[in-house]
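Quick one, probably user error.
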């Protein structure tokens, strides 16, 4: 997999942008439970009052509050409030907002920083709770007496006046005693308890507390909606960027694979089957593409969510962190079990896809033979066997994966139940707020989902890794035929003399040479024919010239230049090659002929078709040269296919022609006519002609006879009939003595 990462380099900025957006998305989603907690805690339970620092408070109440503050706290509080009465300049500004100011002076909070507000919050909050404690003590009094500072006093006694009359040292002791009662409470609980008293104060001031509550809930809800929209936009953009990166990578890798396969010699093609190359170029690259999309969207996103969720969950409650740890341990254990079961099957699936493609391709390409021998049932069974094995393996993997999701839901629901159970007890003990418990629950779900996403990636990565390894095998395949580092120019003063000098060839893995010490020279203006029995090495010999194979020993020269010293492109640019099995491409007759030279003229196309004796059937077509050719040339006969292949080579007007048994599908009359028309057109070129029929090569200037990879005769037809028994035997097996004379 890492070998293909280098192809992501052009998309670096896109990936960085996607990661940035993922961070924004994660932060947005992590903020949503906080907003929900605020709506529950502050909007509903606290009536929209978020702090124990009141924005306004009656003078009488402030006088009571400062009794429970030391001198420093008292100074800090009073310096942030301004006393407003009937004589104040700002009286008219506040009369409508705080109607009670008409009857009593009011302290109004000045503009202060958030830091200063956080500093005042516990001071005023605890003072409010102390006041509340005194009022509760009065309401719970029995027999008209209450216990205060170790003494029994009447319930109607003004305790606040009593506190004012106490020495400062004694008052300080009372404050310390009261503050000890709040030590067990967290600041959030102090704040929540105090804001109820603040709300009562607001009502006493004549403020509209319902409007205050609704305003807070609506405002928080709008922020929640905006954050959700931001998260949604980020999700969409990241999805788009991930798809573009993955598609771009797939395009690049597919182009690399295709380009590498195009540069394969026959040796490399023997290493990979056609079905396997097709699978690697399509299915395997698709697996990589899917993985890249998921990696960008999950691999970077899940850790941000997981770590962020843990931090925020611990901020809500450290005492319940063990629940998340337990859920993660159970989750990882289950993932490891599933992973160990499914992993070997993922590796097997890609090989089974290869097998199905191989069987399918063989059936489609050999359909006529299958029907001719009535072996349809046998082929169906062969396909069913491959298909069934693939189906069984896929079903097994899918069943394992299908088990995972219900198990995940069970874990998630179990965690939810556990959080509610533990959280309810903490809420009852005033150690946690309801909104915080709900937020903790959401963060726990986000953490579990993060691990679930990562586990999904760990399951996907091995399968895609197998695909990536298979693709990398093709890209990293060491080519046996390479261009030289300092190539020579073969086109300079090109004549086209082809010379084999002591050439031997052995197929990779072969025990002995296929060709043995072959030496001959083919000259321009002459036809050099090669004949021999089946398997004697004729096709292998001519395939050395365009370097489809490289010699094992010896050298092939063109104009005294070793063909290994020039680029393959320049070498093949001077060769017109007609293969043993003619190949046509889907398109038109014209596009197939222009395949040799896209800049050729209509005149040259027509002339080449005439020489190749193709005009006879082209003229019979309604659309002439615009007639469609099906894939592989399946809508033309073997002879027509050969003639179009020959015409294509003629369009190129090369210096060297190679006809590899290219006349085998032609009748004797067409064969003779074509060769007669071909002679003047190739009089300045070197022609190498591989043939099985003696009649095709009888007029060649030089005939080379091969037997078991060695040259057993060289000469004209007449010379070989006298000097070469092998040639004579082949000739007499095809023609009578009179025809050979």
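Nope, works fine. Designed sequence:
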């Amino acid at each position: 997999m890492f070998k293909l990462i280098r192809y992501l380099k052009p998309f670096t900025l896109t990936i960085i942008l996607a990661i940035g957006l993922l961070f924004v998305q994660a932060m947005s989603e992590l903020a949503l439970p906080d907003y929900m907690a605020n709506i529950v805690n502050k909007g509903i339970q606290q009536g929209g009052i978020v702090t124990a620092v009141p924005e306004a408070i009656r003078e009488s109440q402030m006088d009571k509050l400062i009794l429970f503050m030391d001198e420093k706290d008292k100074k800090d509080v009073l310096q942030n409030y301004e006393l407003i009465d009937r004589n104040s300049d700002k009286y008219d500004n506040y009369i409508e907002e705080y109607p009670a100011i008409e009857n009593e002076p009011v302290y109004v909070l000045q503009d202060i920083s958030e830091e200063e507000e956080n500093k005042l919050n516990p001071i005023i909050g605890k003072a409010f709770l102390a006041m509340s404690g005194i009022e509760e003590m009065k309401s719970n009094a029995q027999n008209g007496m209450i216990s205060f500072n170790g003494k029994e006093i009447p319930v109607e006694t003004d305790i606040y006046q009593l506190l004012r009359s106490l020495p400062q040292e004694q008052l300080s002791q009372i404050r310390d005693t009261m503050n000890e009662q709040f030590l067990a409470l967290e600041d959030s609980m102090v704040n929540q308890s105090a804001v109820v008293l603040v709300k009562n104060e607001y009502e006493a001031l004549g403020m509209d507390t319902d409007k205050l509550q609704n305003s807070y809930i609506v405002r928080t809800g709008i922020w929640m909606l905006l954050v959700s929209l931001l998260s949604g936009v980020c999700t969409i953009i990241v999805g788009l960027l991930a798809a573009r990166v993955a598609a771009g990578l797939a395009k690049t890798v597919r182009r690399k694979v295709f380009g590498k396969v195009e540069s394969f010699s026959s040796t490399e093609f023997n290493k990979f089957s056609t079905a396997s190359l097709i699978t690697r170029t399509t299915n395997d690259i698709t697996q990589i593409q899917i993985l890249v999309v998921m990696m960008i969207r999950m691999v970077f996103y899940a850790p941000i969510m997981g770590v962020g969720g843990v931090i925020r969950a611990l901020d809500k409650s450290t005492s319940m962190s063990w629940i998340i740890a337990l859920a993660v341990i159970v989750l990882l254990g289950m993932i490891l079990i599933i992973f160990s079961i499914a992993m070997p099957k993922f590796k097997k699936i890609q090989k089974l896809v290869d097998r199905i493609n191989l069987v399918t391709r063989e059936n489609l390409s050999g359909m006529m033979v299958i029907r001719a021998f009535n072996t349809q049932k046998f082929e169906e069974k062969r396909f069913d066997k491959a298909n069934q094995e693939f189906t069984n393996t896929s079903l097994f993997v899918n069943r394992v994966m299908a088990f995972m999701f219900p198990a995940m839901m069970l874990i998630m629901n179990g965690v939810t139940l556990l959080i509610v159970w533990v959280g309810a007890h903490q809420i009852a003990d005033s150690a946690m707020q309801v909104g915080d418990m709900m937020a903790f629950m959401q963060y726990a779900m986000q953490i579990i989902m993060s691990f679930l996403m990562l586990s999904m990636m760990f399951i996907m990565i091995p399968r895609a890794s197998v695909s990536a390894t298979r693709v990398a095998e093709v890209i990293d395949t060491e080519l046996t035929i390479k261009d030289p580092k300092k190539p020579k120019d073969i086109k300079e003063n090109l004549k086209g003399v082809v010379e084999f000098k002591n050439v031997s060839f052995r197929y990779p893995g072969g025990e002995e040479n296929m060709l043995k010490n072959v030496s001959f020279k083919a000259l321009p203006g002459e036809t050099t024919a090669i004949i021999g029995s089946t398997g004697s090495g004729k096709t292998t010999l001519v395939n050395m010239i365009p370097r489809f194979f490289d010699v094992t020993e010896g050298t092939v020269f063109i104009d005294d230049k070793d063909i290994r010293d020039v680029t393959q492109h320049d070498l093949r640019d001077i060769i017109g090659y007609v293969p043993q099995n003619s190949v046509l491409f889907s398109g038109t007759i014209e596009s197939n002929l222009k395949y040799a030279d896209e800049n050729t003229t209509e005149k040259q196309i027509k002339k080449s078709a005439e020489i190749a004796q193709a005009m006879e059937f082209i003229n019979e077509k309604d659309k002439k040269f615009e007639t469609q050719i099906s894939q592989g040339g399946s809508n033309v006969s073997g002879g027509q296919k050969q003639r179009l292949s020959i015409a294509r080579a003629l369009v190129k007007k090369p210096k060297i022609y190679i006809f590899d048994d290219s006349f085998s599908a032609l009748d004797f009359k067409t064969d003779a006519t074509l060769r007669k028309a071909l002679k003047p057109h190739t009089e300045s070129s070197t022609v190498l002609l591989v043939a099985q029929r003696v009649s095709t090569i009888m007029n060649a200037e030089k005939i080379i006879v091969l037997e078991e990879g060695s040259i057993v005769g060289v000469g004209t037809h007449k010379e070989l009939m006298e000097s070469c028994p092998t040639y004579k035997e082949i000739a007499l097996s095809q023609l009578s003595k009179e025809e050979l004379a």
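The chain has three domains: 35-217, 264-475, 495-574+684-741.
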